[in-house]
User: Which sequence fits this backbone?
């Protein structure tokens, strides 16, 4: 191509390479916009071009993703082209504004130019953001890649750049958010915008602006100030809700930081030794402040059921993505500081609200907690029976299995009329759920016969496997081994649904799956824990039930939030390990699936006793 250009230059006596330079000089904006976009991601752009000003941060100098590791996934989701909406529910001091607003705006001006609207609750805040954050970002970007694209000056209400315009919007002025079509919409402090508006819903008005553009993008960030606010609503309605999962330095198990994992949990600051740690939900080892930075550096953005962000970005299109980020993931905030802030807040409703919203990125609501029994109280109820001989009152058995990333677990329970129950046997099968041998051992356990004092043996009348994690593997191995009387379960998202909804045949294997209203069943089990002997739902515990068993059984508590008629109920984790609780609830659902009459089965067992085991 260069040889051809040289020949043309000689033939016509014109240096076209010089003319090209002149065109780019005199039509600078058109030339910049005409350059095809490359494959650079937003996080790569930030490390290549972004320079932080000393007037806006204590970490002045070139942007480094390693100083805020979790921001990389958010930035790359925004620049991926896979999302139409990105919502970041973030706490304070986790660089959510830098990663979800400032860096993306710089990237878009440089690499994907089109008109942009940035929206804040008030005009004062919007102008301050432009003056103190956006303008320095433009001025300090390396190689002048942003400054050279600005046409004229950055004025208080926006500016023009090669390929588009930058507008400011606020909840105070409907005209500022309804007058201009834009391709990119950034909404900061979203819940505060909705609360301060004097007309309708300004966010709904603003979200009309990008509709006429192909591949438009709406980015919304903020703390959740209300359960029914924009941030929480976006999290609930997202196609994928991502959390940063970190590896335990002791066992390698992946988990996300939550308040319940902080250790210790003293009643007040005066009872605290001044050191905070975090308990791994898998191996129960303590993670220290010195372990935390490397854990965050090794984080993986994924959903609760293990779907990774990179997988979604590789194949997604026009998705609604959401990210949840609490203060645990700041490289500057230790476990000790988190625990100290929580203990300082306890006892003051206003301070607890600030901690809940600003540190945990959770909405604060008025709530009533239905406290559980203590582990010590349940330990005193342990009876001497073992799986070698069933208690005489048992007339039917069920078995339920839980699937985890590194193991399968199963719990077998016994039942009598009025839903009296016994915990009979529990076993953990370590290994990947892709291993056929682990599933073979699981099904052998779930279908195992148990001797009964009446002289016969009992096998579970129904077995069920939870399909929340890797339903494809659950279907595959149920189909492969065909264990009798075995189906799948899935928890219902509707708290008002029946305890058991009609089943569906799932996958090419056509495995039967039942939908369970776990919320209502949990209330039944919760009540049964304190039901006295002889009353309906009374629960018995055998010799295998130790302290860790009861800790898991009491891993959730019922929370009632709001006031009538808008009162809601939800289950809140108080311990990260909850398999025993889930399997106990699952066994109750399994009994419902079986459809048996406990009274009829009790008569059969009674018949065996009266016939001396010969019936």
Assistant:
């Amino acid at each position: 191509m260069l040889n051809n250009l040289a020949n043309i230059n000689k033939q016509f006596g014109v240096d076209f390479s010089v003319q090209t330079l002149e065109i780019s000089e005199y039509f600078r904006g058109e030339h910049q916009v005409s350059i095809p976009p490359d494959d650079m991601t937003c996080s790569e752009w930030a490390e290549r071009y972004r320079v932080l000003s000393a007037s806006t941060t204590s970490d002045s100098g070139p942007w480094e993703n390693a100083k805020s590791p979790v921001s990389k996934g958010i930035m790359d989701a925004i620049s991926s082209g896979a999302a139409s909406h990105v919502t970041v529910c973030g706490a304070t001091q986790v660089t959510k504004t830098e990663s979800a607003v400032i860096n993306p705006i710089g990237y878009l001006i440089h690499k994907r130019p089109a008109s942009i609207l940035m929206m804040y609750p008030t005009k004062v805040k919007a102008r301050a953001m432009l003056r103190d954050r956006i303008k320095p970002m433009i001025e300090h970007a390396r190689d002048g890649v942003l400054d050279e694209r600005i046409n004229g000056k950055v004025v208080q209400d926006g500016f023009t750049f090669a390929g588009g315009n930058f507008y400011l919007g606020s909840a105070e002025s409907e005209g500022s958010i309804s007058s201009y079509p834009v391709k990119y919409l950034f909404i900061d402090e979203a819940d505060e915008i909705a609360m301060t508006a004097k007309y309708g819903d300004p966010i709904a008005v603003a979200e009309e602006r990008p509709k006429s553009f192909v591949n438009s993008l709406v980015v919304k960030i903020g703390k959740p100030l209300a359960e029914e606010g924009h941030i929480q609503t976006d999290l609930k309605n997202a196609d994928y809700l991502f959390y940063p999962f970190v590896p335990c330095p002791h066992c390698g198990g992946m988990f996300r930081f939550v308040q319940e994992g902080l250790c210790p949990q003293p009643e007040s600051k005066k009872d605290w030794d001044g050191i905070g740690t975090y308990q791994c939900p898998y191996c129960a080892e303590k993670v220290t402040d010195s372990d935390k930075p490397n854990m965050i550096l090794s984080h993986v953005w994924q959903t609760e059921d293990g779907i990774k962000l990179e997988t979604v970005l590789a194949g997604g299109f026009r998705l609604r993505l959401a990210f949840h980020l609490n203060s645990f993931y700041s490289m500057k905030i230790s476990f000790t500081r988190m625990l100290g802030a929580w203990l300082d807040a306890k006892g003051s409703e206003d301070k607890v609200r600030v901690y809940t919203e600003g540190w945990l990125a959770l909405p604060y609501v008025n709530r009533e907690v239905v406290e559980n029994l203590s582990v010590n109280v349940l330990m005193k109820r342990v009876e001497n029976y073992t799986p070698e001989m069933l208690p005489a009152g048992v007339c039917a058995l069920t078995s339920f299995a839980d699937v985890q990333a590194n193991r399968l677990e199963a719990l077998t329970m016994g039942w009598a009329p009025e839903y009296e129950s016994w915990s009979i046997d529990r076993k953990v099968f370590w290994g990947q759920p892709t291993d056929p041998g682990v599933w073979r051992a699981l099904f052998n356990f779930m279908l195992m016969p148990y001797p009964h004092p009446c002289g016969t043996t009992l096998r579970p009348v129904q077995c069920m496997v939870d399909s929340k994690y890797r339903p494809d593997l659950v279907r595959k191995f149920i189909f492969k081994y065909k264990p009798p009387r075995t189906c799948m379960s899935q928890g219902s998202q509707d708290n008002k649904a029946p305890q058991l909804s009609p089943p569906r045949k799932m996958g090419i294997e056509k495995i039967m799956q039942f939908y369970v209203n776990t919320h209502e069943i949990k209330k039944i089990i919760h009540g049964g824990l304190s039901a006295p002997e002889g009353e309906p739902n009374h629960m018995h515990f055998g010799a295998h039930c130790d302290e860790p068993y009861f800790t898991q059984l009491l891993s959730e508590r019922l929370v009632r939030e709001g006031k009538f008629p808008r009162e809601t109920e939800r289950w809140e984790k108080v311990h990260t390990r909850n398999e025993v609780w889930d399997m106990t609830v699952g066994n109750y659902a399994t009994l419902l699936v079986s459809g048996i009459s406990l009274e009829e089965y009790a008569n059969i067992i009674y018949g065996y006793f009266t016939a001396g085991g010969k019936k």
Q: What stands out?
A: The CA atoms of residues 171 and 197 lie 5 Å apart. Confidence is low (pLDDT under 50) at residues 16-27. DSSP finds 22 helices and 29 strands in the chain. The chain has two domains: 42-364, 375-610.
